[in-house]
Amino acid sequence: MYADAQKRSSRRPQGRLIGYARVSTDDQATEAQEMELRSAGCDTIVQEHGSGASRARPALAKLVREIGAGETLVVVRLDRLARSVSHLLEVIEDLTTKGAHFRSLTDPIDTSTPQGMFSLQVLGAVAQLERALISERTKAGIRAAKAKGRLPGNPGIRERRPDVLARMTAAQKAAYGARIQANANQWLPTVRRMRPDHTWDDIARVLKQRGLDWTPERLRRAVKWLVAERLAGPALLRKSPPRLPEDRLMTLVAGIHSSNPDLTLREMAVQLERLHERTPRGGTKWSPSSVKNLIDRARRSGLIAEAPESAADPAGG
């Protein structure tokens, strides 16, 4: 009986296994990692060449963005995936949010099993302790420097040395890119559905309704970075065409519907009121019928796929 329970608790999900193989330079090869990953059952393997000191890993970011629920990201060793414990935990958190799993072949980490989750919790505690120790050492160093009459911080930055400033700028750009990629799966699909038909203002307001705090300028800058890194198509940066007020409302409603098809017409009406959008007749109160008219127009225009005839009308509320 105990053996049966152990077998049930250690079952892994039946979803696809996707391997990730990374080497630090273009001169190195991923063949050894690929052999181990294929032996473990990975039918798809994503390769990447990138320094272990950098979080800017476009192939990994794209993989995490596109992985499906029930699928498992597999690596040979933890150091092939992440540069630090905190980076590892961020990646696993993104996978967990999407219902996906993570597994390392040579480390006791497999988020689809109770034992693997326990190991992950231990790593989280270690990361928290590491942050606390670094903070304490930093504070102690600043106190010691002040006691000796020295200013804390990098003297090269204070002296405005070009080489130091260049390294600092590069580090800031890498950190910015890492932040953008870390949560792109939460907002980029909405941007792709709504651009360039909608202004950055419209998209930022839709995202705000979903709890994502973006300003239009920050959003445009983030997409511009993704386009420059070839992680998004340049069409997203095209200028929005001028539209009549009702056409703009139609595409806005289409964007809201595409972002969350499960919303009822009444819930969409509430969202439009929260966005302070005027009805086609200039009113402030939206009715489900007004929303339905715009959705029907969007379907006829091809902005929304035709609903199956058997599907129930979401007009309730």
TrEMBL record:
Pfam families, A to Z: Resolvase (PF00239)
Annotated GO MF terms: DNA binding; DNA strand exchange activity
Domain Resolvase/invertase-type recombinase catalytic: 16-149
SMART domains reported for this sequence: Resolvase
Keyword DNA-binding: yes
Protein keywords: DNA integration, DNA invertase, DNA recombination, DNA-binding
Cited SUPFAM superfamilies: Resolvase-like (SSF53041)
KW tRNA processing (keyword) present: no
CDD domains hit by this protein: SR_ResInv (cd03768)
Record-annotated active site: 24 (o-(5'-phospho-dna)-serine intermediate)
Coiled-coil residue spans: none
Family: Belongs to the site-specific recombinase resolvase family.
Stated name of the protein: DNA invertase
